[in-house]
Write a structure and sequence with these properties.
about 45% helix, about 5% strand, 8 helices, 2 strands, mainly alpha
Length: about 150
């Protein structure tokens, strides 16, 4: 053996490449309806750093979309307090504006009341009337003698 240093043949680490997201994935992570976003957003992939910057300091178009809509189906369901399946059963379109959501909440159609009760029992109906819930027991009469 010689005392000469050996050549380092290990593979050198490659510089990290920025991960890119499709516009659809970026819109979903931002909670906005993709067709309502500007053309430049939909035209090219979005990097993770740009997405993070948008989440921390939203541009004007993003703030307006989040405030006024149209909102994607997931956001409509969250704002109405129901599931996505409930929206389908209720015949609601894929996207709604904030005004349409408020109008629906003010009108409180029967399907919405029933679906909200399924999603979160006790969200507006008297106890014992939710689907799948046991009827409420009548209050015990404290003056009744149980040992008669």
């Amino acid at each position: 053996m010689t005392d000469e240093p050996r050549e380092d043949r290990r593979q050198q680490p490659k510089p990290k490449k920025e991960q890119m997201l499709s516009p659809a994935t970026a819109a979903k992570k931002l909670g906005v309806f993709l067709p309502a976003t500007p053309e430049e957003f939909r035209a090219q992939p979005v990097s993770r750093t740009v997405l993070k910057e948008m989440q921390e300091a939203a541009p004007e178009w993003l703030a307006t979309l989040r405030r006024e809509g149209p909102h994607p189906r997931d956001e409509v369901a969250r704002r109405l307090g129901v599931s996505n399946s409930a929206l389908a059963r209720g015949g609601v379109s894929d996207s709604m504006t904030t005004e349409e959501i408020r109008a629906l909440l003010d009108a409180r159609p029967e399907w919405l009341v029933a679906e909200r009760e399924k999603h979160v029992p006790g969200s507006g109906r008297p106890p014992g009337t939710a689907i799948g819930e046991r009827p409420a027991r009548p209050a015990a009469d404290p003056e009744a003698d149980e040992f008669d």
